Amino acid sequence: MSSSLNARERIESLLDENSFVEIGARVRARSTDFSLKPTEAPSDGVITGYGLIEGRPVYVYSQDASVLNGSVGEMHAKKIVNLYQLAQKTGSPVVGMLDSSGIRLQESTDALNALGEIYKQQVRASGVIPQICAVFGPCGGGMSILSSLADFTFLEKEKGRLFVNEPDTLKDNYKEKCDTAEAAF
Q: How many domains does the chain have?
């Protein structure tokens, strides 16, 4: 699977043909802080649902980097939490496809709390259902923890990036060097 596919195409290429059932397609971002005007955010930047892989049920979510850079806000996270709860009830695996700029800072503590709820569901699911993550784009900060809590994580070789802090936050660090051992903050 390639990083050039959009979120929906990733899901469709993973699942058996015509087996995907979307959950929460009408959910929209709920940003009330910093006097921000509502923005058009289809599915709040994450497509969630279930389908079949070789005839077996699986729950899947795919972050949509074309919507708010795939950033995680309150409703985005609630969709993933709901998906985990459904998967645990049925004993089905969860596949997460990550492509996110991180947490949506303008949603402040609502987004932080919601991200914590995802962590809680992943911990509850640990050892109960298989959890698989694939990183197709940037996956930094709190989002990098999602992949570390999964049973298996795959990184797309061209654009997949997993980090807690951007390498550029280190003084004198650049792509050709990428030496964090000697760098100053």
A: 1
